């Protein structure tokens, strides 16, 4: 069967299960005697095993199988959870994670997991009461088909024959590839018990139960039924290759020699499934999985519709036909709620990003020997899928920093009268058109002097300029390229990749990052992100015949200034705006817009934009107004156009380019 | 028309797999359920000729669901879907009245063999 079509859904579910496993393991680590959690972990591992085996990822299946074995021992009270088990399972999860990543990148699961499998096995077998003795029992499979009856057996069989029963010797061969052979054998027993009484089995029942047999076994059955009926009954069970039945006569019995082996009925092991109910942590709603590309497509189509709506709008305004106006107004209302709906479809809870952090913090705190408690607030806050995909790495970086540099060692904390366990709070919330993510630690805070000294040392600032720096400005130095305050380069953070990378990532998402800190009390990183990247609020401006959109998030204000107020500093046009010298950038010059109208007014329109603390004035011809626009990329061929981040189609069908103001301010 | 079958498994992936195998072989999958409780509801509603029932599921596992379905309808034909290493549970299920079991990873011919034998 072609499996490739299932790959996506397989990967999706595998990731969910791994996430669940990690979460549950963290819970288990805190509450090691909670068998409900063990059961939940077991169940997840089990499903993962099944699906990966089906997809043919046998390495994954083997690893999960070993995990499951170990967990099975735990949940059946044969083993206690200890840190070794937890660590080993965590490491196994990491390997599984890597396998899944490799598979989703078009690879396979061929990662070497032997070591992990072996250590899982050694834990299972080392302390397991059920360690299988490989050398037990005779060479089965090719074994003796003949039974050795003891005196007691013989007496019973003879009596049975005398009272009119038949004694059948039944040789059952099951298909070679059968999995769960002993359950298959049990089905045979179960079926045969309807026809009579099973006296003996070879190999003995204990071995059948342990799956310690080849592809066949034999049974002695006392029955009143005809041989054919019995045969048919056994053959009706699936995976049975062949059944060979012969009748045992009194004569046969007399020839038997003595042997003593007892018969045990197959014990019906009652798994205590009923006692261990797993609390449902997810209410399974009616869900449909949709490819994000389809949503993009939907959004695209919708924006085409918005364009036509805009044209209708304009038409209705001109014609002043009340009926048409009515229809257009209704359409406007519907399309705006449609837009909200479509945007909501793209929204995913930030949980998806957050939920891998508890595990990460746990590992970090172990590695660094610090005690850390991570609280997550607002994990259900939703934001655009495209942002979600990008925000993970920057957050990892900041969190690592918080644990590594922010929090003090346990000894230092005790010395400073702080609780041994450091607190890190990860909080997400909505505000206006933005989502805020705050990472707060109660560590040592940022040392102003240290930062300044370091910055001078690195040549980022001059000693003279430090006197007037505000706290904020000092902290911002941390975000500069080439800055790292860590005295030593640890394994955790400070690998040469500084916070500047975090900053540029967040800015590329249209967001901001700021730092706030109190020495000795802790540090807070605040990230502000736009709710969505596909629809942005913008200001439309006119430059000659062309229209441009400037994202509202980067605009400070607009102004009209007299031409004679424009000054020149080193051949650069500037204005004195509210006591500040602001350089002017003429969009007409930057984009080489052809002249079409004579410019004879004595005023210029300026849009003041900022990039962090820097401000610039963009000279335009006129302001058109504020508008929500649908961002469309320029495609791969034009992705490198200077200072343009995309394009949008306006209501009248015209195309407006969207400015990337960050590129205009150097 | 093919015999009607209800497919129960908590993994949507597995349901899809079984469904494909069944549909290709002329059976009609009349419903799907993601856990034991849903399976019982669906059974009452659809009265399928046969149920394929996963053993490990959240909330209500396959064996509990099997037992309840058997109570509702002693003639219900249920085939358990298990994985390697679930010997004991399979045996439990057979005792509780399951017709047969199939083992993951599924092989189409095995699945069909079990189902046709159970229905026949």
TrEMBL record, chain A:
Location of the Histidine kinase domain:
324-533
Superkingdom in the source lineage: Bacteria
Q: Spell out the SMART domains in the cross-references.
A: CheW, H-kinase_dim, HATPase_c, HPT
User: What CDD domains does this protein's entry cite?
Assistant: CheA_reg (cd00731), HATPase_CheA-like (cd16916), HPT (cd00088)
- Identify the residues that the record assigns to the HPt domain, covering every copy: 1-103
User: One GO CC term of this entry?
Assistant: cytoplasm
List the EC numbers from the record: 2.7.13.3
UniProt keyword Repeat, yes or no? no
GO biological process terms held by the UniProt record:
chemotaxis
Which species is this UniProt entry from? Vulcanibacillus modesticaldus
Q: What class of enzyme is it?
A: transferase
Which residues are reported to carry the modification Phosphohistidine? Answer: 46
Protein name in UniProt: Chemotaxis protein CheA
A Pfam family of this chain: H-kinase_dim
Q: Which UniProt keywords apply?
A: ATP-binding, Chemotaxis, Coiled coil, Kinase, Nucleotide-binding, Phosphoprotein, Transferase, Two-component regulatory system
Q: Which residues form the CheW-like domain?
A: 535-666
Recorded coiled-coil stretches: 11-80
Spell out the InterPro entries in the cross-references: Bact_Chemotaxis_CheA (IPR051315), CheA-like_dim (IPR004105), CheA-like_homodim_sf (IPR037006), CheA-like_P2_sf (IPR037052), CheA_P2-bd (IPR010808), CheW-like_dom_sf (IPR036061), CheW-lke_dom (IPR002545), CheY-binding_CheA (IPR035891)
Q: Which GO terms describe its molecular function?
A: ATP binding; phosphorelay sensor kinase activity
UniProtKB/TrEMBL annotation, chain B:
Q: Response regulatory domain location, by residue?
A: 4-119
**GO BP terms in the entry:** phosphorelay signal transduction system
Signal peptide positions are none
Per the record, residues carrying 4-aspartylphosphate are 54
User: Which keywords does this Swiss-Prot/TrEMBL entry list?
Assistant: Phosphoprotein
Pfam families assigned to the protein according to its UniProt record, in alphabetical order: Response_reg
Q: What is this protein called?
A: Two-component system response regulator
Q: Write down the species.
A: Vulcanibacillus modesticaldus
Highest lineage ranks of the organism? Bacteria, Bacillati, Bacillota, Bacilli, Bacillales
């Amino acid at each position: 069967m072609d499996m490739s079509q299932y790959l996506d859904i397989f990967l999706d579910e595998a990731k969910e299960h791994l996430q669940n496993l990690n979460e549950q393991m963290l819970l288990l680590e805190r509450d090691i005697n909670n068998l409900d959690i063990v059961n939940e972990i077991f169940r997840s591992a089990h499903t993962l095993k099944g699906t990966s085996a089906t997809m043919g990822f046998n390495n994954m299946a083997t690893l999960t199988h070993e995990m499951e074995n170990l967990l099975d021992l735990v949940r059946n009270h044969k083993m206690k959870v200890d840190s070794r088990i937890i660590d080993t399972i965590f490491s196994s999860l990491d390997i599984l994670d890597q396998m899944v990543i490799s598979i989703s990148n078009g690879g396979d699961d061929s990662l070497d997991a032997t070591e992990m499998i072996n250590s899982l096995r050694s834990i299972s077998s080392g302390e397991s009461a059920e360690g299988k003795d490989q050398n037990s029992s005779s060479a089965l499979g090719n074994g003796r088909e003949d039974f050795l009856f003891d005196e007691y057996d013989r007496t019973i069989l003879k009596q049975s024959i005398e009272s009119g029963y038949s004694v059948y010797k039944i040789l059952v061969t099951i298909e070679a590839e059968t999995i769960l052979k002993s359950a298959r054998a049990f089905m045979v027993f179960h079926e045969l018990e309807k026809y009579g009484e099973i006296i003996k089995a070879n190999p003995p029942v204990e071995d059948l139960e342990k799956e310690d047999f080849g592809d066949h076994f034999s049974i002695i059955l006392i029955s009143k039924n005809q041989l054919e009926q019995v045969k048919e009954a056994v053959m009706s069970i699936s995976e049975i290759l062949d059944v060979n039945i012969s009748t045992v006569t009194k004569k046969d019995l007399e020839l038997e020699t003595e042997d003593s082996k007892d018969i045990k009925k197959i014990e019906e092991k009652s798994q205590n499934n009923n006692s261990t109910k797993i609390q449902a942590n997810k209410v399974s709603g009616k869900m449909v999985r949709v490819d994000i590309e389809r949503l993009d497509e939907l959004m695209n189509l919708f924006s085409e519709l918005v364009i036509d709506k805009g044209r209708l709008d304009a038409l209705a305004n001109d014609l002043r036909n009340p009926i048409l106006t009515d229809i257009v107004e209704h359409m406007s209302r519907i399309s705006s709620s449609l837009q909200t709906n479509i945007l909501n479809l793209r929204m995913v809870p930030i949980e998806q990003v957050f939920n891998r952090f508890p595990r990460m913090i746990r590992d970090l705190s172990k590695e660094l020997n610090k005690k850390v408690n991570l609280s997550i607030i607002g994990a259900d806050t939703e934001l655009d899928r495209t942002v979600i995909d990008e925000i993970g790495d920057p957050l990892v970086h900041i969190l690592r920093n918080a644990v590594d540099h922010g929090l003090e060692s346990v000894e230092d904390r005790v010395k400073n009268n702080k609780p041994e366990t450091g607190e890190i709070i990860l909080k997400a919330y909505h505000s206006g058109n933005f989502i805020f993510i705050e990472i707060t630690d109660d560590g040592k805070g940022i040392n102003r002097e240290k930062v300044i000294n370091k910055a001078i040392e690195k040549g980022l600032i001059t000693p003279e300029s430090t006197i007037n720096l505000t706290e904020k400005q000092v902290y911002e130095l941390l975000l500069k390229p080439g800055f790292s305050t860590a005295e030593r380069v640890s394994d955790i953070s400070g690998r040469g990749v500084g916070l500047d990378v975090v900053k540029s990532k967040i800015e590329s998402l249209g967001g901001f990052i700021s730092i706030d800190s109190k020495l000795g009390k802790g540090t807070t990183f605040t990230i502000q992100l736009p709710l969505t990247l596909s629809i942005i609020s913008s200001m439309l401006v006119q430059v000659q015949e062309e229209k441009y959109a400037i994202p509202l998030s980067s605009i400070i204000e607009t102004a009209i200034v007299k031409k004679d107020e424009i000054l020149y500093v080193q051949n650069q046009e500037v204005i004195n705006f509210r006591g500040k010298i602001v350089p002017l950038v003429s969009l007409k010059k930057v984009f080489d817009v052809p002249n079409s109208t004579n410019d004879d007014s004595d005023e210029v329109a300026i849009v003041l934009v900022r990039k962090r603390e820097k401000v610039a004035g963009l000279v335009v011809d006129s302001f058109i107004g504020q508008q929500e626009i649908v961002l469309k990329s320029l495609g791969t061929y034009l992705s490198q156009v200077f200072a343009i981040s995309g394009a949008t189609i306006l209501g009248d069908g015209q195309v407006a380019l969207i400015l990337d103001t960050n590129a205009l301010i150097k | 028309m093919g015999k009607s079958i209800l497919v129960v498994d908590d993994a949507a992936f597995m349901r899809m797999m079984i469904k494909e195998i069944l549909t290709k072989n002329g059976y009609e999958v009349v419903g799907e359920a993601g856990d034991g409780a849903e399976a019982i509801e669906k059974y009452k509603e659809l009265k399928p000729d046969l149920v394929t029932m996963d053993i490990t599921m959240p909330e209500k596992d396959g064996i509990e669901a099997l037992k309840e379905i058997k109570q509702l309808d002693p003639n219900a034909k249920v085939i358990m879907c298990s994985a390697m290493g679930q010997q004991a549970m399979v045996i439990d299920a057979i005792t509780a009245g399951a017709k047969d079991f199939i083992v993951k990873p599924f092989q189409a011919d095995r699945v069909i063999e079990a189902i046709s034998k159970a229905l026949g």
